[in-house]
Specification:
The complex is a heterodimer of chains A (about 300) and B (about 525). By secondary structure, chain A is an alpha/beta fold. Chain A folds into 2 domains: about 220 residues, Rossmann fold (3-Layer(aba) Sandwich); about 60 residues, Alpha-Beta Plaits (2-Layer Sandwich), CATH 3.30.70. Chain A has 10 helices and 13 strands. Chain B is an all-alpha fold and about 525 residues long. The longest helix of chain B has about 35 residues. Classes of the chains: A alpha/beta (about 300), B mainly alpha (about 525). Chain B: Keywords: Membrane, Transmembrane, Transmembrane helix.
Chain lengths: ~300, ~525
């Protein structure tokens, strides 16, 4: 696996605030990588380090085989970036900005530009401040997707897009992946992450807390089961992968590791099952667990 | 009406809280500059006889009248009003227009107003709060002036304080109007500042042409009214009604406009632009973003040059035989040939004002960075030096352009032929090393400590204050030498151009700018 982005032990402090506290992140070439974390976790700081706008205090960062700080200018020819909050010059039209960005990167595809403007339903003649937030976002998205950058760095790019445009955005990301490009997608929209991302990294307080494919991450979580049984429990609590068994009369509640479900259901069946509900882990639960662990620990 | 003003109190408190540093500093600098005059003047003109002679000489000299207006009384108070009245009024006007635009159009442009207006905030509350903030600041300036000058005569002190505060309010309402007309805070400030510049040029032209200030040109300028109040010189209280009338008319207009438009919108609406762009790079972008201001400054310098150039001949007719006056003019202009000295003094004034242009232009870098427009640009294959270089080329090259245009205006206004005009343009361009030094200080501040970049305004302001007021106050040469402008040869008229200081200043400017750029390359960009 070749790596488009590889970051290890990255530290960055702003005064007393530790924005990055030993962050690790690996993005393979050609994958769509979801970059998740609560507000203030350090996602944008990481991206700004990768873009050579901030200099890390310590740690190693490699981007497309180069140093994001020292080789910033040459690397940027191969990168397209869409910030979460796009600000435009008030007296330049959207079309002018798209073409300026294109020329700075050494040209953009005219047909692809025209096609994208049509798909995103963008009016390129409007000027900076007259665009809504979603439309400013579209200007940056058209410029990014019309380039032939190898790596797309997208920082919450769909905040402000309507559901139809969000759909167009998803198509564009998938097309980019099919064309062999790498995408780092920071997002809060979990359905978007689920639909697009091959792998995700979850960070919290400037550290990576989880990385892997969605299936792998799901695997790490537990299914909650509640059942009404006919007979007594048959050694269920001793089974590997079973947690938090609470039994009251014929009612039993428990948590089971998702990959041990088979054994758990067998054991329940031997006791005779009157009713059973099993709740699989939702993606939300998965993330919420990571996002809130800290508060839970603090309590 | 009540509902239209709902929330004004809260917005005013917000404005005063946000301006808690800027406003007191500006109030103190403005009022102390005025109220320190009696002491400084008494060291230059110790006796009543000296003051009487100085007053007579000043009034007889059209170039001095152009700079400061006529003297109406040779008491210490009268000379204070003469020397510092207009200066204080200009400072109060700039403070007021900045405050008003900052809390009206700036809030709308950044979108912050939207959130405020969604709360219990009436349609007219933001404008009212901004104007009240200006009233607070101007009242403070007026009170300090009236209080600290009361020893020179309470009625005069009160009249001067009211005139200075009144000018501030006139330009507060000019800014309120400008904020309704444009969608950008920068343009609104530009319109209000252009109005202030026009008021100064009108007053200067009128005063150079008439010894008693009764020219119609002076009467149409709010800065002229400051003179006409005649503080300490038989106060004409009714002139204050002019301030009140102008403030009322402009405020009513601004309120009428603000009630009729949408939040964030203006009456000069943005037109659609081209669907495709031809901007080829960051240099072209910098020029595109700043060209409007370069053209505006050039037009202003051309007009100012034409007006001042037209006065130059008058300066030669009235050679004062007062040795002190001659010394003052020599310190400003350097030559005994008074026409040359006058032109040199005006070239110097243009140079001082060009320092404001270069600071504004250099600080566009800071504005682009903090508005996060630099970030996506620098995520492209664009080096920080190339990005900054585009703006600096406009800043440093633009200052050369506006000074050349100002010199052209001076030469044409003076009307003494091509050779003379070339000499005057040269004299204006000789200001460049000092202007660039100020610009380079701004680059250094921006590169090393971007949060403190606005301190560059204080540097330019200090140079302006030393150059404008310093020569008449016997400010020690060692203090004058702190300003780069003090080291320039006095042109036109010097027998031989002293190249050494020009080269040294240019080298210093280059070094400071290079250091600033080196720091910019190494530091984090603001997010």
């Amino acid at each position: 696996m070749t790596k488009a982005i590889s970051v290890a032990g990255l530290h960055k402090a702003f005064g007393r605030t530790r924005a990055l506290d030993g962050l690790d992140l690996t993005v393979a070439t050609g994958e769509v990588h979801g970059f998740l974390g609560p507000n203030g976790a350090g996602k944008s700081t990481t991206i700004r380090v990768l873009l050579g706008l901030l200099r890390a205090d310590s740690g190693a960062a490699e981007l497309l085989g180069g140093d994001p700080w020292a080789d910033a200018v040459t690397l940027h020819r191969r990168i397209a970036y869409v910030p979460g909050d796009v600000t435009l010059w008030r007296n330049l039209s959207g079309g002018e900005v798209i073409d300026l960005y294109g020329r700075l990167r050494g040209g953009l595809h005219r047909e692809r530009r025209a096609e994208l403007i049509e798909r995103f339903e963008l009016d390129p003649t409007k000027k900076g401040r007259t665009y809504s937030k979603g439309n400013r976002q579209k200007v940056a998205l058209v410029a990014a997707f019309a380039s032939d950058a190898e790596l797309l760095i997208l920082d919450e790019p769909t905040s402000g897009l309507d559901p139809l445009m969000e759909e167009v955005f998803r198509d564009c990301v998938l097309e980019a992946r099919d064309a062999g490009r790498t995408v780092l997608l920071s997002s809060h929209i979990l359905s978007e992450v689920e639909a697009l991302c091959d792998r995700v990294s979850i960070i919290r307080k400037g550290r990576n807390v989880e990385s892997g494919t969605l299936a792998e991450l799901r695997h790490l979580t537990r299914t909650s089961i509640s059942a009404e049984l006919v007979g007594p429990l048959n050694g269920l609590a001793q089974l590997p992968g079973v947690h938090d068994v609470q039994s009251q009369g014929s009612q039993v509640r428990l948590q089971a590791d998702t990959d041990k479900l088979d054994a758990v259901l067998r054991s329940l069946a031997t006791s005779g099952v009157r009713s059973l509900t099993a709740t699989p882990p939702t993606l939300e639960e998965l993330f919420l667990r990571h996002y809130t662990t800290d508060e839970a620990n603090a309590r | 009406m009540n509902r239209q003003l709902a929330g004004t109190g809260a917005l005013l408190r917000l404005a005063l809280r946000r301006d808690r540093v800027m406003m007191p500093v500006w109030v103190l600098v403005t009022s102390l500059l005025v109220t320190s005059m009696p002491r400084s003047l008494s060291t230059v003109y110790g006796t009543a006889a000296e003051r009487a002679q100085a007053a007579a000489t000043m009034n007889a000299n059209s170039s001095m009248r152009a700079l400061y207006g006529p003297v109406f009384s040779d008491s210490l108070g009268g000379l204070t009003a003469w020397r510092a009245g207009v200066v204080g009024a200009v400072l109060a006007a700039v403070m007021s227009l900045v405050i008003v635009v900052r809390h009206t159009r700036d809030e709308e442009e950044t979108g912050r107003q939207e959130m405020l207006s969604a709360a219990m905030v009436g349609r007219r509350a933001p404008l009212t709060a901004a104007l009240l903030a200006a009233v607070v600041a101007d009242a403070a300036v007026g009170l300090v002036i009236a209080g600290r000058l009361a020893g020179q005569g309470a009625p005069g002190a009160l009249a001067l304080g009211l005139a200075v505060a009144g000018t501030g309010l006139v330009f507060a309402t000019v800014a309120a109007l400008a904020a309704q007309l444009t969608e950008s805070a920068r343009a609104a400030k530009g319109i209000a500042a252009a109005a202030l510049g026009a008021a100064f040029v009108l007053r200067a032209a009128g005063d150079s042409g008439s010894a008693d200030g009764e020219s119609a040109l002076v009467w149409v300028s709010p800065l002229g009214w400051v003179e006409h109040v005649r503080a300490f010189g038989g106060e004409r209280w009714w002139v204050l009604a002019l301030f009140a009338a102008a403030v009322t008319v402009q405020a009513v207009l601004a309120y009428a406009l603000t009630g009729r438009r949408d939040v964030g919108m203006s009456f000069l609406a943005a037109r659609p632009g081209p669907a495709e762009g031809r901007l080829g790079g960051v240099g072209a972008l910098a020029w595109r973003l700043q060209r409007g201001s370069v053209f505006g400054w050039s037009a202003g310098f051309l007009v100012a040059g034409l007006v001042f150039g037209g006065m130059a001949e008058g300066a030669a007719d009235l050679v004062g035989d007062n040795e002190k006056t001659r010394q003052i003019i020599e310190r400003m202009g350097g030559q005994t040939a008074l026409t040359d000295a006058f032109l040199a003094a005006m070239a110097g004034m243009l140079g001082l004002v060009a320092a404001l242009y270069i600071v504004a232009s250099v600080l566009r870098l800071s504005g682009e960075e903090s508005a996060q427009r630099a970030e996506p640009l620098l995520a492209h294959p664009v080096g920080r030096l190339a990005w900054a270089g585009g703006h600096l080329a406009v800043a440093f090259g633009g200052s050369a352009l506006i000074l050349a245009v100002g010199g052209l205006g001076l030469g044409l206004g003076h009307g003494q032929g091509v050779a003379d005009t070339a000499g005057v343009i040269g004299a204006c361009l000789a200001q460049l090393p000092a202007v660039w030094t100020i610009g380079a200080v701004a680059v250094l501040l921006y590169g090393v400590a971007p949060r403190l970049a606005a301190v560059a305004w204080a540097v330019a302001g200090a140079a302006l204050a030393l150059g404008w007021v310093g020569p008449a106050l016997n400010v020690p040469q060692s203090v004058m030498n702190l300003s780069p402008f003090a080291h320039l040869p006095k042109l036109p008229g010097a027998a031989e151009v002293a190249w050494a200081p020009l080269l040294v200043l240019t080298a210093l400017a280059a070094a400071a700018a290079a250091a600033g750029l080196a720091a910019l390359r190494r530091r984090d960009l603001a997010g």
